[in-house]
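Q: What would this chain look like folded?
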Amino acid sequence: MSANPGEKGGLSFKAEVLSNTALNAEHLLLTLKPATSETPEKKGSVTTSGGGATSGGGLASDAEATSIKGSVTTSGGGAASGGGLASDAEATSIKGSVTTSGGGAASGGGLAPDAEATSIKGSVTPVAPGQFYMLQVGQSAEPLLKRPLCFFRKGEGNTLEFLYRIRGKGTQLLSQIKPGAEIDVLGPLGRAWPRPPKGKTPLIVAGGTGLASLYPLIRSLKGKAVVFYGSRCGEEILFQDELERMSAELHLATDDGTCGSKGTVMDLLGKYKLTPDHFVYTCGPEVMTRAVTKAVLGAGATGYASLEAYMACGVGACMGCVIKTTKGYRRVCKEGPVFKLDELVFA
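A: My prediction, written as C-alpha cells:
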C-alpha cells in the first residue's frame, strides 16, 4: 500500500501489527511493520550493511551492497558525505527513499549521528529519540481519534516498536489488537531530544513509561548517560539488562523496594550531586517533572523534559494540547513534546 505525505512533516501510512506483547499486567511492547514494497532490483543503486562510509558515491571497506531501485542505504555504522547517512546509521530504503530513527536530521540534507532508518515507499522521514507517532487504536470507527505513542526503537526487519501502558479506553483497545491486523499511523511528529553540549554529562531521569521516550536517547548516547529510573515495583522496571549495558551508571528505585532503592526516583536523585556540568533529560509523571525541574535549575544545570498531553490531531491544528510556558502558550504536539526545563510553568 502506498504511503502519502502526512501533515507538518509526518508520514501517513498503513502498518501491520507483528506483535503486541504483554510485558506485565499493564505494559505492552507493540511491533509494527510499515506497509512497504521490498523487491530487490539491480538498478544502479547500493545498499550498504556492516559499517562502511561513503564519499562521493563509493562504497567503503567492509561494506556489503544490495540494490533497491535507485537508492543508497547504509546499515550498522555507515556515513555518507554530502547528503548521506551519518555515523552509526542503520537504514533500509524502499524505492529511492531513506527514513531514519534515533538521531534526528542533520544539516545539508544528511542524517544526524546515531540515526537508524526505516523507509516507507519513497519518503525521507527522519525519526529521532523523543518524537512520537499517532496510532489507530481500534479496528472500527470508535474511537475516531488516534493516540500518541513515543517512538521506542527500531526492531528487526524494517519494524517500529512502541512501549505503552494501558491507561484508558484507547490503550485498552490497542492492547487487544492482534498480530496481522493493519492500522493507520501518522508520524514521526514533534521535536526530538537535543544532543548534549560538548563537555556536559548527560543525566537521564525516567519515571514509569516515561522510559519509552528516553530509551532511544540512552541508546544513542552510547554508554555516556547516567540514568535514574523509577517505577512502582520491580515488575515494572523494564529492560533492566539492556539499560545496564547502554548506561554509564544505572540507578533504580521502586516505591515498594522490590528493585533498587526503596522510594521514588526523586529520593534517589536527591542523594546524587547535581552540578552545572550535567545536562538533564526527563520524562515521567508531572509531579516528578516538577521536582526534577526544581532540582536541576537549583543546581545551576540545564536540561529538557518531554511532556504528556491529550492530543486530537498530533500536528498542531486543533490546539487541544496547549500548555503555558515562559514563552507563551505552546502546543505539546508541535513545539514539543520536548521543552527546555526553564520554559516550563507549573500550576
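The longest helix spans residues 286-298.
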